[in-house]
Specification:
- The complex is a heterodimer of chains A (235) and B (292).
- By secondary structure, chain A is α+β, with helices and mostly antiparallel strands.
- Chain A is built from five helices and 14 strands.
- Classes of the chains: A alpha+beta (235), B mainly beta (292).
- Chains A and B meet through helix 1, strand 4 and strand 5 of A and strand 15 and strand 18 of B.
């Protein structure tokens, strides 16, 4: 695997080619927030460089799939200005109906905490979006208090409803679309976080912060009917 | 319109798929064999990205309720129109009341049916490609089923490419697929590295549009890694703990945590998708590129 170093945003990356159209960039050494590299990936994506077809960035890697072999892409990348680049810092409030959690028994048994104590800790936490998930519309929210970490389910649930908030490992996850799910569902947020009719379908970005607010089932129904988006909700 | 008497296997409306959205975890989706798809529309005079029906291994039975033109490309499914064999890779006129039937594939694995003007489909995130896990695109956001009705524009917009200009591929010759070592190739033990290059795999029958499982040549790693989730694309070969590699296809997710042992570039991946499940495939490495 041929590799060399390049600098992006004053960070050193090892660039490795997997054939002429797949380029992987790994930060060396790894530092910064979980959201830094995904946000840099988003910034690269938004430059619309001609040879780039896909950009997928995780906290440890930026992967670039090219439309065709482009030997000069590393120079083009090195020329990207990161002056306007700021790690996103929008804040969202997620209204959550905790009565809609279906896995409270496991979470309480595993954490040795009462449901109200878990909810209290969740309400006091400011989460940050680490990355978009393995599934369309899935958000990985970082900063879950260590006491609330739970291993994933051995047998994933066949269907988890849209808006489910769930604990998996060290993350709190938000299912933007209904899907099978291996995380422990502790509530539901009635806001629309994923819009299939818009490109991009999600406005939030890695590094954005999230806090939770508790709502009743009646309020949940009301908000659900309004089809509010994440950014248009004001508690 | 066309009535679906029998849907065949995992038949769906497809086109080139969703581009540039993997950043937001949107799978690329779209046709598995872009060459056969492109040829189907070109031979009919459709614009390049016109929605077609993609069929896997077993063809559908379709009843036409209006006269039109169609083109069949990709796998040879022993297509028959009103019981008489029809050629692939050339325009076929059909009349109202005609029945088109595709049998089990005899050469290749994915077939394409293009129709004059293209199939009507819902669009999600800029594409008509069916992506059933999220109910996007296609006809009712799903694979075709018995009783479905397919609508199409039934108009030809440009001059078709002449059949004499298109080479009909012989998929039975495909046994070797070329690839590159992936970022986690070094995690394979020496025996497995040799086995990957020297021994054939069989393509499992449990293959779908997300991925194809490779069997009968189990690989193992030097140690069990705990890798963070990383980018995956169609063509990436992952190694789950079972030791049976998975070749990711168009409907794959955008990140995954299994070691990425190899990568099949698009042109070779199209070849791979035309090898029938149950048959064998051998991998060879392409020369490393020198862009530095």
């Amino acid at each position: 695997m041929a590799s060399r170093f390049i600098h992006l945003n004053n960070l050193k990356f090892r660039a490795s080619w997997i054939g002429p159209t797949l380029l992987l960039l790994h930060p060396e050494p790894q530092k910064g927030s979980q959201a830094l590299i995904p946000n840099m990936g988003l910034h690269i994506r938004q430059q619309y460089l001609e040879p780039i077809q896909e950009v997928v960035a995780t906290p440890h890697e930026i992967a670039l799939l090219l439309k065709h072999p482009a030997p000069k892409i590393l120079d083009q990348l090195a020329d990207i200005s990161f002056l306007s680049f700021t790690e996103a810092k929008r804040h969202y409030v997620l209204p959550v109906c905790f009565e809609k959690g279906t896995d409270w028994t496991f979470v309480c048994e595993h954490t040795l905490l009462a449901k109200d104590a878990v909810i209290d800790q969740l309400l006091q936490t400011t989460f940050s979006l680490s990355m978009w998930g393995f599934l369309p519309g899935f958000l990985y929210l970082d900063n879950l208090p260590e006491q609330l970490h739970c291993p994933r389910k051995t047998h994933p649930a066949k269907q988890v409803p849209r808006g489910s908030l769930a604990i998996g490992g060290k993350y709190l996850g938000l299912y933007g679309l209904a899907s099978p799910g291996g995380w422990h569902v502790i509530g539901n947020c009635p806001l629309v976080s994923f819009q299939s009719d818009q490109v991009p379908p999600m406005k939030c970005a890695p590094g954005d912060t999230f806090s939770l607010t508790k709502i009743s089932e009646a309020t949940w129904l009301e908000l659900r009917d309004q089809q509010l988006s994440l950014s248009s909700y004001a508690p | 319109m066309i009535e679906v008497i029998h849907p065949g296997l995992l038949s769906s409306i497809q086109e080139s798929g969703r581009k540039g959205l993997t950043t937001w975890a949107i799978p690329q989706s779209g046709v598995l064999d872009r060459e056969a798809f492109t040829a189907a529309n070109a031979l009919l005079g459709n614009p390049p990205n016109t929605p077609v029906v993609e069929v896997n291994l077993l063809g559908p039975k379709l009843l036409f309720h209006e006269a039109t033109h169609l083109v069949l490309t990709g796998a040879d499914l022993n297509w028959q129109l009103n019981g008489a064999p029809v050629d692939r890779y050339r325009p076929i006129p059909v009349q109202s009341g005609d029945t088109l039937v595709g049998k089990f594939a005899v050469n290749g694995a994915r077939a394409y049916l293009a129709i004059a003007g293209g199939f009507q489909a819902t669009r999600s995130l800029g594409s008509a490609a069916t992506y059933p896990p999220c109910n996007w695109g296609g006809l009712n956001d799903a694979y075709l089923k018995k009783g479905d009705t397919l609508f199409f524009a039934n108009e030809l917009t440009s001059d078709p490419v002449s059949p004499s200009e298109v080479v009909v591929p012989d998929y039975s010759a495909y046994q070797e697929v070329r690839c590159y070592p992936g970022p986690d190739w070094h995690l394979l033990n020496e025996t497995s590295k040799a086995a990957f290059r020297n021994h054939p795999f069989s393509i499992s029958q449990q293959s779908n549009r997300m991925g194809a499982v490779l069997e009968n040549n189990t690989l193992s790693l030097v140690s069990s890694p705990n890798l963070p989730s990383a980018a995956i694309f169609p063509g990436i070969i992952q190694l789950p703990p079972s030791g049976n590699p998975i070749v990711l296809l168009q409907d794959c997710q955008t990140t995954g945590g299994y070691p990425r042992i190899a990568y099949i570039p698009e042109k070779e991946l199209m070849k791979f998708t035309q090898i029938m499940p149950g048959r064998t495939v051998k991998f060879a490495f392409l020369p490393e590129n020198r862009f530095f």
